[in-house]
Specification:
Helix content is 37%, strand content 15%. It has twelve helices and twelve strands. The strands form three sheets. Strands 2-8-7-6-5-3-4 form a seven-stranded mixed beta sheet, sandwiched between helices. Strand 5, helix 7 and strand 6 form a beta-alpha-beta unit. Helix 2 packs across helix 9, helix 4 packs across helix 5 and helix 6 runs parallel beside helix 7. The radius of gyration is 21 Å and the shape is globular. The structure holds 4'-deoxy-4'-aminopyridoxal-5'-phosphate. The site of 4'-deoxy-4'-aminopyridoxal-5'-phosphate has 13 residues, from helix 4.
Length: 353
């Protein structure tokens, strides 16, 4: 008998519609498209990581609970270790949140925002309810609260990727007070500015805060994210967490970075200073409308075709971020780079117009 094997028949429609993540690499360009830390990783910290690795560090499974990292994170953020979960990048924690609360339920997302919320919601089989931000990318708090009534998760990002603006404490409190479900505030860029919502954690059992070592702390390649929540929420997330999600090398690296975090403070200060210089310069340039930002990137609207500006920059060796999002068809985002990289970006931008 003929075997009419058709795996697509077994895969639900929502998943079939997803496009596999792909990335075009452009060797040799100035890479200002992914909001990474632009500096070289500090040599002293690299050596310290090496020293912490023992002869069996790679042969044994990692510590499933990453206890030392969790304990030191708790200590340096003034929370209890029971309020933390670590992940293979905050991307994994977003997926865990979607699998735990989103699967088969509604997930409210304030858009435009980081694309992985929508992607992981689809992977988990959630129904996505997008609440558009206002013309200036401020949150539409009443609409978010209204939509949360029959939702299982609300996702906010502050500072928001890509617009760069932050939510206020009043806005987040108002959402937390009125949403009957967990409210995620992704604070991947909080080291660069905007309010830190961690002090609200003890007062709000529905608050979930996401943080990462990928941006200010220069560990994007090692994938370490972490999440703060009260145990009422965490107990369910731990049911979904992969036992060995954070590999030993990354645990050791994150721990070492945490212990040397003072080394990163001048980098963060310089990045925010450079961001403000970039902002002020771009504000003077005709044809671009740059948005103020609390993060390590700037989003700008082009009076020209965003695709042409993107191509023009790329042909001059500068890679910025463009968006597949129809809400952002006229916009581009540039990450703050090293000083010379920012100068080249500005010069190239002037040449493109
Ligand atoms: N959240 C936001 C808002 C981001 O911009 C990013 C990275 N682009 C992430 C989470 C994912 O970070 P990680 O490297 O920790 O997975």
């Amino acid at each position: 008998m003929e075997n009419r094997f058709d795996p697509g028949r077994l895969v639900r429609k929502g998943l079939q519609e997803l496009v596999p993540y792909q990335e075009i690499t452009y060797p040799g360009v100035i890479k200002l498209n992914a909001n990474e830390n632009p500096y070289d990783f500090p040599e002293e910290i690299r050596l310290a990581i090496n020293e912490m690795l023992g002869p069996q560090s790679f042969t044994r499974y990692p510590d499933a609970m990453a206890q030392q990292l969790v304990q030191e994170l708790a200590h340096c953020h003034g929370v209890s270790a029971e309020q933390i979960m670590v992940g293979n990048g905050s991307d994994e924690l977003i997926l865990d949140l979607m699998l735990t609360f989103g699967a088969g339920n509604r997930v409210v997302i304030a858009v435009p925002t980081f694309s992985m919320y929508g992607i992981h919601a689809r992977v988990a089989g959630a129904e996505i309810v997008e609440i558009p931000r206002q013309f200036d990318f401020e949150l539409d708090v009443p609409e978010i609260v209204r939509a949360s009534g029959d939702a299982a998760l609300v996702v906010l990002c502050s500072p928001n990727n890509p617009s760069g603006n932050s939510a206020t404490v009043e806005q987040v409190q108002s959402i937390l007070d009125n949403c009957p479900c967990p409210v995620v505030v992704d604070q991947a860029y909080v080291e660069f500015g905007g309010p830190d919502f961690l002090p609200l954690l003890d007062r709000y059992p529905n608050l979930v805060i996401l943080r990462t070592f990928s941006k200010a702390y220069g560990l994007a390649g090692l994938r370490v994210g972490y999440l703060f929540a009260q145990s009422q929420v965490l107990q369910y997330l731990f049911k979904v967490k992969q036992p060995f999600n954070l590999n030993t090398f990354s645990q050791v690296a994150a721990l070492t970075v945490l212990r040397h975090r003072d080394v990163f403070a001048p980098q963060v200060a310089e990045i925010t200073r450079q961001r403000d210089i970039l902002y002020n310069t771009m504000q003077q340039m005709p044809g671009f409308d740059v948005l103020p930002s609390d993060a390590n990137y700037l989003m700008f609207k082009t009076g020209y075709s965003a695709a042409d500006v993107f191509d023009g920059l790329l042909s001059r060796g500068v890679l910025v971020r463009n968006f597949g999002d129809p809400l952002l068809s006229q916009y581009l985002r540039v990450s703050v780079g090293q000083t010379e990289e920012n100068v080249i970006f500005l010069r190239s931008l002037q040449q493109v117009i």
